[in-house]
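Why do we care about 3D structure at all? Because function follows from shape, and shape follows, mostly, from sequence. That is the central idea of this module. The next example makes it concrete: a single protein chain, its amino acid sequence, and then its structure expressed as tokens.
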Amino acid sequence: MKNMTNLISYLKSTLHINVNMSSDKVEYSKPIPIAIKNNYDIFNIQVNNQNTVLLSTNEKDIGSVKKHFNLFENSLSIPVVLHIESISNSTKKYLIENAIPFVSEESIYLPQLLIYFGKLKETYTKVKGKKLSKLAQIILIYFITKKEYKTTINSSAELFAVTKMSTSRALNELLAFNYLQVENQGRTKEYFLKQDIEIETLLRDLKNPIMDTVFIKHQDLNYFHKKVKSSYSALSKYSNIINNVPIYAIEKEYFNELIKKNNSIIIYDKAYDNDLIQIELWRYNPIIIDENMIDPISLYKSLENNIDAYDTRTNDAMDELKNKIQGMLN
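And the structure:
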């Protein structure tokens, strides 16, 4: 980090969020001694549109740095972040234990944004190779399909009937995957869906929702109230393809619970006769946006690797479905 431009570029390329210099003047509510100010290069930057003061220093006495940091934090109404070009493991540990946000050449700790990259190259590689967790995938699909662009931990926890801790982890995960940005509104963090999501990136980061496929008797389908038509049955709702064979998606956990309660339901691994109905067992509840319709994103992921390359009719229907998803992202 030889200069501020390099630092800004570093943060942008590492965090994949908006980081820019701010022309706003740093305003202090309390005076800070000139002798202390002289130990720091002081910059006003914007991180995801949040004004932030960056204190860059070569000060070796970390105890003094902590005292100075507290002075700046108490004198400013916006977040303060420390920049140390090279940082030892012991200093890193000390700063984290004292909740002091910092950036360095190899580590980033920004609790205001729920971000901590300890070893940047390793961490970013892991994120790139990972798929989204179940809850993160549900939240992302919901907000894209519903075109809802703002949420909080509390509202999402209530909406998806999960704990605040689980919701916080899922939103943090979506931040790391660059689907959300966050702003502080007092003590509340507001999360915003980004407007520039690329469809290929989205489809790459999502998991196939299907965990297993089984068959049950047609009359046993009545036991399952949380079900929705899926596969080609659902594809016909989004395109001109015609399918007369019903296929249903049911959340696997819900399916197993009902099977345990009712031993009369027999599960088959193949369609031995026409009375058997195909059931896809899903990682999550397939009824995310409409109790009568599977969402187009989940449907696409469930079908994308099972389409016959020579079946032009179905491939055209999948193209229609993909275009619908693209329209949601625009």
